[in-house]
Amino acid sequence: MADIITTRDLVKRFGDVVPTEVLHGLTVSFEQGALTAVIGPSGSGKTTLLNILSLLESPTSGELVIDGRDFSAGDINAYSGYRNAHVGFIFQFHYLLPEFNALENVLIPHWIGRGRPSGAFTDKALTIMREMGILSIRDKYPNQLSGGEQQRVAIARALVNEPRIVFADEPTGNLDRESGFAVLEVMTRMIRELGTTLVAVTHDREIALRADRILELVDGRICKSFRVRELGEKGARELLEDRSCRVD
Amino acid sequence: MIVRPYEAHIALRFLRKGRGQTVLLLGGIAVGVAVQFFLSALIGGLQLSLIERTVGSAPHIFVLPPDNLPTSVLAGDGLAVDSRRVPYSGMTEVLSWQQYVDFLERVPEVSAVCPVAGGQGFIERGGATETVAVKGIQPEAGARVYHFDKNMKAGRTDLSGDAAIVGWSVADKLRLGLGDRFFVRNSKGTGDTFTLAGIVDLGSVQANAQVFLSLDRARSFLGLDGVSAIEVKVKDVFAAESLAATFRREFSRVKFESWQERNRELLTALRSQSGSSGVIQFFVLFAISLGIASVLGIAAVQKSRQLGILKAMGVDNWGAARIFVIQGLVLGVGGSIVGIGLGYVIGAVFLRFLGTGTFGLRLNAFNLITPAVLAVAGSAVASVIPARRASRLSPIEVIRNG
Fold first, then answer.
1. Which value does ipTM take for this structure?
2. pLDDT of residue B354
3. How high is the pLDDT of residue A64?
4. Number of domains composing chain A
5. Would you list the DSSP string of B41-73?
6. Are residues B287 and B365 both part of a single domain?
7. Domain ends where: B227, B253, B279?
8. Do the Cβ atoms of A99 and B315 come within 8 Å?
9. Does any CB of chain B come closer than 8 Å to the CB of residue A14?
């Protein structure tokens, strides 16, 4: 499979008076259609990397190419159109708009990019909601939903425009373990069905082991990068327990 | 401003879901617009009524003899100055008045032209005497200038023979009835007897202290060769001053005086009234705008999370800003519509229960549209502050801080 995202010497520094470098020249690529879990301890730079890859934040220096297009420099506002058409977001908190019901929330990305959704598009959104088991709550508002339902609606919203890449930051971090796994199950199934690339940040190794590839960051550098299937679940677990770094 | 469908969709939903806040804002704007509309309609009505009372049944332009005309101070031989001669001569009549009448009747902006022979006189009846202004007019032209059709309280416009029309207050004082005969004496002591054919009410005591005779009778009564003035009525009362200035450029041997020149104090008072009303209206609008800016500003803070995620999903900075500008515009338009209705009701109630009944509301397009346009513009300007905030909001800050 070809790479959909490529970075070269990606650096991110915060602060002007006392600059803090969070990412130290990362060079990494992400395969199209693959599910990659980015893990690492707090402060390792995984969320910063996700924000840069998802065009919500600009890198300080280095190269970022997505789908053959160079996004290394520029104002993130200029990439709004690309984000709408090709990128889906799932955050730890659902961030649903409380003024809109579940179906309307799912349709928001279409409203932003292409205007009022057609009947056919609404049917498509309803199909996604059915497959995610949330069709019955289509008319309910976010404050009437459980945490798991809210996160499923957020996932349906991320997928409705059939994006090329979905970025997820601790997608089940706000849910109890049971609901979290159920949501994860639905999310990975849908993403695989659509052939979408997923880059998910998680601190949960059990969740990471469900990905195709694991990328571990430590202090803003890649410490481990390996394919789960090649090592098998046991090998992958052992490697995750190992404190030394290994990059395939 | 090009509005994309999602911007209107989200803006309207924000307003609908924040119903209580929206109703309060709409109420605030509506009250502001109502006050503005009511004030301008009421003051406009009052001013119109004052102007109508002042000049409605009176001429708008007077063609008068010049105050002074230059005359030669040279002696008969034309070589030396005769110190006994004064360098000007005062005139009390317009002699070749027909040429002015002919000219003025052809001016499209003029609605009536009436040559007038005027002077002071005294009506005597029984033992009573009343000072009056004697005015000789051409019946048809005079009727148009003084609106006899509308102002005739009794009788009719008949100035033939010894018929005369008398102002209402004089008729009342002297207990004159239609068909009564009365004696009018001029300032030289001579006089004549007339028959009352009509009683008019011209709106003010001064205007009603007049006796109207036929032009020819009045000229011989007052001993005039020409006329003492030509009175002109124009279609647009406020155009009188500029028309008078135009006529002045055409004729230099007579004086043109507009009603505005004769009523400077009234106009100054009206202007002051309009000015103070404008100041009140400005501060009302300012207060409304501050209210909208403050409430929408709070809304922008409250909705930071929603805006952040919308920006992450592809709403650009301008789109986020327009969501708030649209809210401002919707509030402005909605508030204005309600406000105009409310203003009309307040005005009607005011006139019904507190008004004097002598003036109405001036319901013209200007009074109707101006507060509405100002409120919409004020709302749009007020929405700029939250709009700027929304446009500058970084999605990453929202996502990072929850």
1. 0.89
2. 72
3. 96
4. 1
5. HHHHHHHHHHHIIIIITS-SEEEE--S-EE---
6. yes
7. B253
8. no
9. no
